[in-house]
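Dear support,

I submitted the protein below through the web form. The confirmation email said the job was done, but the results page showed an empty box. After a refresh the structure appeared. I'm attaching both so you can tell me whether what I see now is the final result or a partial one.
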Amino acid sequence: MKADIINPFMETVTDILLTMAEMNCQRQPVFLKHEANTPGDIVAVMPLQGDSFRGAFVLALDASTACNIGEKLLREPMTFPSDACLDMTGELANMVSGGARKRLWQQGYDFEMSQPTIELSQSFKGMPLNSTLVIPFKTPAGSLWVEVWLKSILPQARLSFGQTTNVG
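What the results page shows now:
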């Protein structure tokens, strides 16, 4: 997966948490997902669709992290599980996806993202193994993770001598 596609997600998480929640976050080393489970207690899943890619973006948070970020954003106490905590996770995912999508558009990528689906991580089926990048972050509020999976859907063209190549 290209860095110019992943960097907008990393930059947007950092910018939103600093701007909206007044908290710094540190990106940890990015790695390829090899386990079926998604870390954290709450996941916001957003399908991605573009002219040349399809995939998904997942924002995963520990319950305490979600509550701590929610309290910074809303300036009121938050508990888990609660509708307010789950709604805040969805809003945070919307902000991240919107910021990342804007940066991707500025680079010439055309992606559509749906509204997030919020799930508890134990019920989440997970992202494809060995093709999903996991981007962990540490914040004063706790840990969060971004998972990005993209698959090329470029049409295939047959050359006259029988080889197949990507068109695009």
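Response: this is the final, complete result; the empty box was a page-load delay. The mean pLDDT is 81.
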